[in-house]
């Protein structure tokens, strides 16, 4: 059995919010939680966090009961990243702490390496 290192971590708040979203009535259980990057944003790359179909180039990971997919090539950019959920008065949404980012934008959703 091959052991694959999980590239990202979820804080307890992020885990709770993702679990809540996936348990909502009408959630499409055929979709996977996708974590990744795409070109764009003010710093060059933007984070992807959403629900999607599994592609041939995806790796399936399981962490603390959450299953997610990631394009195999995205691990280079995201290894060691922590995903958090903030639910405060000044900030609401997922945030990303990425040790691989050499520069991030003010909104925290794009970065460069």
From TrEMBL:
SUPFAM superfamilies: HesB-like domain. Gene3D superfamilies: HesB-like domain. Signal peptide: none annotated. It holds the Pfam family Fe-S_biosyn. InterPro entries: ATAP (IPR016092), ATAP_core_dom (IPR000361), FeS_cluster_insertion_CS (IPR017870), HesB-like_dom_sf (IPR035903), IscA_plant_cyanobact (IPR031108). It comes from the Bacteria. One of its GO terms (biological process) is iron-sulfur cluster assembly. One of its GO terms (molecular function) is 2 iron, 2 sulfur cluster binding. Residues 8-108 form the Core domain. This is Iron-sulfur cluster assembly accessory protein.
